[in-house]
Amino acid sequence: MAEENNAPQQGAGAAEGDKPQLKFSLQRIYVKDISFEAPNSPSVFKQAFKPKVNLDLNTTSTKIADDQYEVVVKVTAQVNDSETGTTSFLAEIEQAGLFRIAGLEGAQLEQTLGAFCPNLLFPYARECVDNLVNRGGFPPLMLAPVNFEAMYAQRKKREAQAAQAATENTH
């Protein structure tokens, strides 16, 4: 009976032409690198906590095999005292995932790796940063959700502008 169910699917794929079938799966989520520093402890705990948060986000992707990619979301949170400027803590995490992606090419693959995959990984990074900060003796650092689609669109726009400026400068 299993053969009967597979036969129509194979026939349907052949009728559509020989387009590669889209395959997407998240194989593993893991922490690639993690760091927490509280360089001014314990004196930082003696004063009122008035944080000024500096947050840096970055994403990278690497092709591991024909249809396997590693995507990394790097979150760096540096919190300084808003009055004195002394560093309360620095938390860094590289949250990574292994993705199997087939049937996507060019701009679609690039957008998947640059926006969709980071959107899947960021909640894990947020939780890890929050846990690190809490274990360091500080109040939780609740990072707001991030729109990686918008970040990706902004990056592509900057790249296009830079390419256009480079073209204009050579003529």
From TrEMBL:
Q: Which InterPro entries match?
A: SecB, SecB-like_sf
Q: Does the keyword Chloroplast apply?
A: no
- What are the start and end residues of every segment in region (Disordered)? 1-20
Where in or outside the cell it occurs: the entry states:
Cytoplasm
Locate the coiled-coil region(s) and give their ranges: none
UniProt lists the family membership as follows:
Belongs to the SecB family.
Superkingdom is Bacteria
* Species in which this protein is naturally found: Vreelandella malpeensis
> What's the protein called, per UniProt?
Protein-export protein SecB
Q: Main role?
A: One of the proteins required for the normal export of preproteins out of the cell cytoplasm. It is a molecular chaperone that binds to a subset of precursor proteins, maintaining them in a translocation-competent state. It also specifically binds to its receptor SecA.
Q: How does it assemble?
A: Homotetramer, a dimer of dimers. One homotetramer interacts with 1 SecA dimer.
Spell out the PANTHER family in the cross-references. Answer: PROTEIN-EXPORT PROTEIN SECB, PTHR36918
The record's annotation in NCBIfam families points to: PRK05751.1-4 (NF004393), secB (TIGR00809)
Keyword terms, alphabetized:
Chaperone, Cytoplasm, Protein transport, Translocation, Transport
